[in-house]
């Protein structure tokens, strides 16, 4: 009896604290965006998890460059698997680098989620949520619905207490020497609320 009770408690603990979690499922109706969980896009388990100290003071915007833009669910799921393969298998990172991705289909794709430290901006990973817009946004701006979904995702992070109320929004190039998130996208986000130009 004691052994079966202990097994049940351990199972419940692992299930409650396991990764990944559907952390946005309850927010879909409120924020009106589609959320695609790790399970739904076919993610492999992470090789390890480091928990973020929440709420974070930064939101860092990226673009993938490669893979290119995706506009259907299947193409975006494929892009997520491609990124995870590159990050986890080639770079030997614990998992896909980003906390979330937003596709040209207007959906949010779960990466490491709200609670895990990402691998997207060296020196800032432990104090930020990394959001990548799937596509090459050097010379053109992402579709308006993709941009709006990013704004809704940030609003959700604020609402749930994962992003600090006085957060700063920055582009990847502001914290690391890189072209990311692409010149066109960088110019776009520089007009958004909470963008910080003096980082």
From TrEMBL:
Q: Which GO molecular function annotations are given, in alphabetical order?
A: N-acetylmuramoyl-L-alanine amidase activity; peptidoglycan binding; zinc ion binding
Q: Does the keyword Transcription apply?
A: no
Among Pfam families, the record links this protein to:
Amidase_2
Domain called Peptidoglycan recognition protein family: residue spans: 33-176
Signal peptide from the UniProt entry = 1-18
Q: Which cysteines are joined by disulfide bonds?
A: 70-76
Q: Which GO terms describe its biological process?
A: innate immune response; peptidoglycan catabolic process
Q: What is this protein called?
A: Peptidoglycan-recognition protein
